[in-house]
Specification:
Aspartate Aminotransferase, domain 1, seven-stranded mixed β-sheet, four-stranded antiparallel β-sheet, alpha/beta, about 45% helix, single chain
């Protein structure tokens, strides 16, 4: 029987042998006391990559986003975000439940400074005050699309003019850097806070970081503790992240090429529509002209291909380091055959 091809997410990756060796030999200490040298090394390395004064290692991308946005706001404030943003759609209502803030969702997955200006609410006693604009790059539910650098600059400059903070949800910023041929530092320029994830395309088993000015990160550190994110000998996990940052960033181009191959193989398939212009990185959104996403996912599972849904008639496939070109092409055939039979 053929091996399972798991395209549900790039979070399903397993640590490589070299990564496991780095974890096994990591120098550790108690990070709650600030004494884990490997955690400190990871934080310093990521801060340098993003061009910030400091960074903080946290257990998850959700925590990175939530403590950053909480540090920028107070209860009753508002955060302006894109359509289907991760910090709204996939973080369990945490902004409302924990930070006590509400969101205003703009119409597109990317947006302009003019749209931020229109959405902005100042010191009006009858309305929630806008305190932050949050950008997601790449945009998960947008199909892994990459923001144009000029659009990022437009939004961050507008935020500065309005006197509000700009947060970058850069869970897949590594993918955006490879796709745009820019550095992470260039893509993060102008943002007051940045979150990046180690356990998606980079293939580490766990962990994210939030980065920004030193005083801001001190505030986030307190919220990390409050949210239950203080870890002890976390260097074992940080070592995986360090290995991923140093060895797995450039190879993201392979995932992007595999996603393109999958999209092109399915673009002409019966009862399937794919917008090739929006396949920028490692995520492919597959729209079904017949049947439901749940039905196709269930049938594909029977054939050893694992997929996710992104709507009633939309399938999401995500390439990563544990799936090679042969696996991707097998998945394309399975999906195409199922769709043709609907």
């Amino acid at each position: 029987m053929a091996a399972v091809v798991d395209l549900r997410s790039d979070t399903v990756t397993r640590p490589t042998g070299q990564m496991r060796a780095a974890m096994a030999t990591a120098e550790v200490g108690d990070d709650v006391y600030g004494e884990d040298p490997t955690v400190r090394a990871l934080e310093e390395r990521v801060a340098d990559l993003l061009g910030t004064e400091a960074a903080l290692f946290v257990p998850s991308g959700t925590m990175a986003n939530q403590i950053a946005l909480r540090a920028h706001t107070k209860p009753g404030d508002e955060v302006v975000i894109s359509r289907d943003a991760h910090c709204w759609r996939h973080e369990s209502g945490a902004l409302a439940a924990i930070a006590g803030v509400q969101t205003l969702m703009l119409a597109g997955h990317t947006f302009t400074g003019a749209e931020v200006r229109t959405a902005f609410k100042g010191e009006d006693p009858y309305q929630a005050h806008t305190r932050v604009v949050a950008v997601e790059n790449t945009h998960n539910m947008g199909g892994g699309v990459v923001w144009e650098p000029a659009a990022l600059q437009d939004v961050t400059q507008t935020a500065k003019q309005l006197g509000i903070a700009a947060h970058l949800d850069g869970a897949r910023l590594w993918n955006a850097a490879v796709a745009s041929k820019l550095t992470e530092k260039e893509l993060a320029q102008g943002f007051d806070s940045i979150s990046v994830c180690l356990s998606k395309g980079l293939g580490a088993p766990v962990g994210s970081l939030v980065a920004g000015a030193r005083d801001f990160i001190r505030k986030c550190h307190r919220f990390r503790k409050m949210h239950g994110g203080g870890m002890r000998q976390a260097g074992i996990l940080a070592a995986a992240g360090l290995y991923a940052v140093e060895h797995h960033r450039a190879r993201l181009a392979d995932d992007h090429a595999n996603a393109r191959a999958l999209a092109e193989a399915l673009a002409g398939a019966k009862h399937i529509t794919i917008d090739l212009a929006r396949v920028h990185t490692n995520i492919v959104m597959i729209d079904l002209e017949r049947g439901t996403g749940d039905a196709v996912v269930a049938l594909a599972r029977e054939d050893g291909v694992l997929l996710g849904t992104a709507g009633p008639h939309r399938i999401r496939a995500v390439t990563h380091l544990d799936v090679d070109r042969d696996g991707v092409m097998r998945a394309a055939k399975v999906i195409g055959d199922i769709a043709a039979a609907l």
